[in-house]
Amino acid sequence: MNARKRERTGFRLTHAQYTDADGAVRTCPKWVAEFRDALERKRKLTLFTSRAESESAARLLVRLVENVQASGRANNPEILRGVALLPERVRRRLAGFGLLEPERATVAALDELLGRWAGALRARGTTEKQARTQRLRAAKLIRLAGFKRLADVDRGQVEAVLAKLRAGEIEGERRLSARTSNGTLQALGSFCRWAVRERLLAENPLAEAARVTVTDERERDALDLDEQARLLDATEAGPERDGLDGRTRATLYRLALTTGLRAGELANLKRSALDLDADPPTLTLAPKATKNRRGCTLPLVRELLPELREAVRGKLPETRVFATLGRIDELADTFRADLAAARATWLDEAATPAEREARQRTDFLLAERHNGRVLVFHSLRHSFIANGKRAGIPLATMMQLARHSDPKLTAKRYGALALHDLSAAVAALPSPRTPGREAASRTGTDDAAPLPSISSGKAAPLSANAPGGVSGRGKAPEGEHSSCASATPAAVHAPESASGNLVSHLVFSGTRGQTPVDFGRQSHRISDSAKTPEKPVKIALRSGKTEQPPAGLEPATCGLQNRCSAN
Fold it and tell me: Chain-centre distance of CA 19, in angstroms?
């Protein structure tokens, strides 16, 4: 019967018997599974005291054997997940039977595996700092989720712990922003992917874990030109902070504003990286000193050379330029202190209490803007890119100077211009003339150009591109009248009458032979035989007065087609 059952299920469960010291035959409490391996050899494996658990494990063993027979090795993720939950003594026996790879037989402590993973990151070129950060983030998530073994890592538990961290619901743990939460998930996911490559896991349990949308990030802002100047002046005159005197810190900030270097790159900048005697002077960073690990050579502005020469005087090639600069977080605190000092100086310069109160309501040199943006040390890099935009430097050039791989990053995320920069850009736009307004301003016939507007108290010039406009500007010779066939009008400012009204004059260039005649608000030309040169031509103003125009100036013709004999 047992043989028939083994043939039907692929295994048979029995109790092993043994003889004790007194010679009595006893039965072992644990069930023993009898099955055949991939080579059809009969095997026995001690399982559990519970028959139900032993039957479940035995069925898993049969599936494992079938998987090895079909594929040559155990590679079914579902089966391997179940095998990973078996006791280590069982996995070792399975590895001895040739059903399991040796690296899957033993499970090292998670802390040991995290150390091996961090070593693999460093071997691939990750910096020591980044590898340490990744390991700490993954270890923190494992600890809070309560995972004891690698097989315990579960996507649902990980997402639940991250949700509590973002909400600040775990006592003793700092609340995480959405971006930091995504970074923590990425760290543990990287660890699981490494475990899959090392065949410690059948598949990545976090492959389907979703990152949250970043909506709580406080974007960094750029300083405008006035803020930059104020910050540099106040810093240079300020006290020593973080081991750096005010003049050295001002040099540090100027270097960041003119090169876009990050805080870490500035902190590790060595004397050998500066070539101040080259033409142009340059700054060269090794691949290991840059964020993208590619290295770079950047030009230096010549105005900064005297300060840099003073900063590197007497230093060895491998010495850091800013040797007394502390950690990055200390540099951030120093920058905020200099920013606050610059704002305080600016507020103290207010002439009256009302002016001071008005200044206090502005964002000028304020670390936390009213629009939610913030000023941090990295804002100097944002300001570097914003200065390039103000100078009209092409996007491709700024992308190369900023060492970005994507122009979208340079164009959208960095270098947000201030409101007055945008206002100046809007003011430079050409003023559009809508068809309805232009048609309403016409007073003549045959699609004539509109009369200049007087709403602003000034005569508006005609556009050469507008319908009915002009193609050029010119002035007739002194004492000559222009020809209608070759006339080229251009707008000039008309004299203002006593009542403040304006009259538009047009300049015509051509030959003599015709004289303009005034017909109130309209005029045309008459032939030589009909003109009366003895009487000076006068222009009727809207105020009722008359005025003789200067030589070469005539009243506006409002598009009359019969003003020339040639028509």
Answer: 76
Query: What pLDDT score was predicted for residue 199?
Result: 83
Query: Number of H helices and number of E strands within the chain?
Result: 20, 13
Distance CA 188, CA 502 (A): 77
Q: Which structure tokens are listed for 185?
A: 């998930």
Higher pLDDT, 1 or 418: 418
pLDDT digits (tens, 9 = 90+) for 380-395: 999 999 999 989 999 9
Up-side HSE of residue 362: CA atoms within 13 Å toward CB?
Answer: 14
The rounded distance, in Å, linking the Cα atoms of 403 and 378 is 15
Residue 479's pLDDT is what?
43
Taken in order 141, 146, 149, 153, the sign of the CA dihedral is negative
Helix (H) or strand (E) holding 18: strand 12-19
Q: Sorting pLDDT into bands at 50, 70 and 90, what band is 435?
A: low
Alpha carbon separation from 423 to 229, 386, 488 (Å, rounded): 21, 15, 36
- Positive or negative: CA dihedral 337, 342, 346, 349: positive
What would the two tokens of residue 42 be?
């009969």
Question: Which is nearest to 87 in space by CA: 124, 49, 120, 114?
Answer: 49
